[in-house]
Design brief:
Blueprint: H1 19-35, H2 40-53, E1 57-63, H3 69-81, E2 84-90, H4 96-102, E3 108-110, E4 123-129, H5 137-150, E5 151-160, H6 164-176, H7 181-192, H8 197-207, E6 212-216, E7 220-226
Parallel strand pairs: 1-2, 1-4, 2-3, 4-5
Antiparallel strand pairs: 5-7, 6-7
Length: about 230
């Protein structure tokens, strides 16, 4: 059943989802991100970006920023590395920014559909983690081109590998730890909507962008470009 990307809809993407459900899911998703080392691929890529470009300051946009936990991780990374960062979160949910602010996220914020962003707006780096599986293939091809047009120094995607092992582990884990019903519902759908290397190779070729596809532990793919 995981041979091709699922088109099943996630509860989090439902406009009828409540703020209480959204916030409850964000809390558990942050726990999952910490346990599964979800920040590590993005922070390692930022290390590589700084090394290859010599940048001492960066404007960074996080697409699908949710509750801002990735932005907070980038802020900590920048403080350790001595890199001056200007951070911006983008999420279409009206509840994302309040949740991020309450969690202490220091960033500008855009509440809108990503494709509605001013075409003239540019950032040094554009990142997104566990976001692209929410997009169907035609929109994902469009998003790859969008990234390439808006990132001056580079862009990076980190998302799930579609495979029975993470599917089974996540199915059991979210129930064992009694996570929010939205997380229980969406977690395995997210993996079923995830990617194989062949998927990424096809999508990158269709978008006609230059990108490097790499495996990341555990069960994740990164797709990125650095303009050195």
């Amino acid at each position: 059943m995981l041979r091709a990307r699922s088109t099943a809809e996630e509860w989090m993407d439902d406009e009828a989802a409540t703020e209480a459900d959204f916030r409850g899911a964000l809390s558990d998703l942050e726990r999952i991100n910490r346990v599964t080392l979800a920040y590590r691929p993005t922070l390692r890529w930022l290390d590589d970006l700084v090394r290859r470009t010599g940048a001492s300051s960066l404007s960074v946009l996080d697409v699908g920023a949710g509750g801002g936990d990735m932005l907070r991780a980038v802020r900590r990374w920048a403080d350790r590395r001595g890199v001056a960062v200007t951070l911006t979160g983008l999420d279409r949910s009206p509840w994302a920014e309040p949740a991020a602010r309450e969690a202490g996220t220091e960033a500008d914020w855009i509440t809108d559909d990503l494709f509605a962003l001013d075409p003239a707006r540019r950032f040094d780096a554009v990142i997104c983690s566990l976001f692209t599986h929410h997009l169907r293939d035609p929109d994902l091809v469009r998003f790859l081109r969008w990234l390439d047009a808006r990132a001056e120094r580079g862009w990076m995607i980190s998302d799930l590998h579609r495979h029975p092992i993470p599917f089974g582990a996540v199915w059991a884990g979210v129930r064992l730890f009694r996570m929010h019903p939205m997380v229980i519902s969406d977690s395995t759908i997210s993996i079923a909507r995830g990617f194989s290397r062949a998927d990424w190779e096809r999508l990158v070729a269709e978008a006609e962008v230059e990108a490097t596809i790499r495996w990341a532990v555990p069960f994740r793919w990164t797709v990125s470009r650095i303009r050195a």
